[in-house]
Amino acid sequence: MRKNKTLFVVIFFCIIKLALHLIANSNSGFQGDELLHIETGNHLDLGYMEFPPVIGLLAFIQNLFHSQSLFVHHIFAHIASLLILIIVALTVVELGGKTKAVFSVLLCIIIAPCFGRAQQLFQPVVFSQLFWVLAFYQLVRFINTLDHKYLLYLTITLAFGFLTKYDILFFIVGLFSLLLFKRTRNVIFIKATWKYLVLFIIIVSPNVWWQFQHQFPVFQMFSRLYQTQLDTLTIGGVLKDLIITLNPLTALFWLGGFIFMFNSKDKETYRSLAISILISIFFLALSKSKAYYFYPAMITLLVFGSIWFEQKILTKRKWMFYPTTILMLASGVVLIPFGLAILPLNPFIKFAHLKKKEGCYQINQQEFYVKPIWENTLTSLKQVYDSLPEGEKQHCLIWGKHYSQAGIVNLFCQQYHLPKAFSYHGSYYLWAPRGKIPETIIAYTNDGATIDFFQTYFDTVIPVKKIYNPYADIDKEAWQTIYICKKPRQTFTELSAIFKTRVFE
């Protein structure tokens, strides 16, 4: 009977979560990073400049539908988000939690705006979270049973997690905690554990080899991130972001879970898991990671928090379940719209009481407002392209300064009858044309790069159209400018050499 109740709870939350994501699909557009990930499906490889190859394989499958539908390009993200709920529920049960613990942890995930957004977009983030929680589940099963087959499952999960997003390394570092406890240390050293290490290396080696062949561009990316973003992060700032984006009310659970892990009577199981999570979080903080890097680790804390709530709070005060649930649901109604576009754009602006500052609403979630902006951009590019003489149109290409600007053109070029776009930003650098540059190029960028940027590479650069974005969160995104560039000063091959060390600018 209890299993049936737990199963019902899991199905109920899966239906609610899928419904929220489908509603968000109808109210949103393609976020800029998604456009890069979609394009990787047209260039299957063993790696990319910013991330490992799994996202490219998933994009390749989605691209088989030849669709510009947001739903189609979110299919795998939606599947992953549901699998996360199922695996989290299985982990809670494996650790001794019952129906109310499963209900509590899944509710925490649903009402946290950070999980709504991270698990909505077609990005490596949601798949990284999936492999992280799956690896944690296998770790729990190994510690509970000391059965080596779970070490095998854990190894395979971590290897594919590595091929999805490199932050799985923080989870792997935490596994060294198993050597601190005699019970797990003895099992690891008695068996031929080295075989699992070899298996991991074999699975990830193609991507490592790709990175080696391309001079490890991922390090160039992280270097750029530290120069422009990560270096300014503080522990206090990241903690504040975590509390807000996780929903402040869930702090009751993840803080309770953190304490419970170290004070539980079941120390044989919980203590080793607790140290593992703590080591991962410590190294995440040491590397000045953004808040979203901590989200998978926070899910594991919520798992323990739900068990703590069920075993320590509800055992003595069963009535607490109902007011706590009502408060959390109420907070979710308020905060979920800030992570998922469950409201159309204008109602969201009213709901969030947003006022224009310096002419813009400054909405942080690009996907909330980008649909009309991309439509305006593509229409404007079409007008500029149609204004060219027929002889110039024949060989003309579009240069998008940012990979998202090239990505939106390539996704919708057939629908708008536009030529293909190229870029030297991010992984688009790998796919840039070679040989001679056409006499006429249409280029466009946001205000982060002025006309001087293109004048370096062409004798004639004429700004012909400006596109205003009243929702941009930063000034440089408020305007896009379209240029007609003529008489190139170099070839595509020479441009590739120029941008070799500027891929992430």
Written account of the structure:
By secondary structure, this protein is of the alpha/beta class. It has two domains: 2-338, no CATH class; 366-498, no CATH class. Helices cover 60% and strands 7% of the residues. The chain is built from 23 helices and five strands. The chain has helices at residues 2-27, 32-40, 54-63, 75-94, 99-111, 113-118, 124-145, 148-162, 168-174, 182-190, 194-213, 217-228, 235-245, 251-263, 267-286, 295-313, 321-335, 345-351, 366-386, 390-393, 403-416, 451-455, 492-498; strands at 397-400, 421-422, 440-446, 458-468, 479-488. The chain has a five-stranded mixed beta sheet. β1, α21 and β2 form a beta-alpha-beta unit. The longest helix has 26 residues, at 2-27. 43% of the residues are buried. The model has no long low-confidence stretch (mean pLDDT 91).
Q: What topology, given as strand order, has the largest sheet?
A: 2-1-3-5-4
Helices and strands, in N-to-C order? HHHHHHHHHHHHHHHHHHHHEHEEHEEH
Radius of gyration: 25 Å
Taking the alpha carbons of the first and last residues, their distance comes to 58 Å
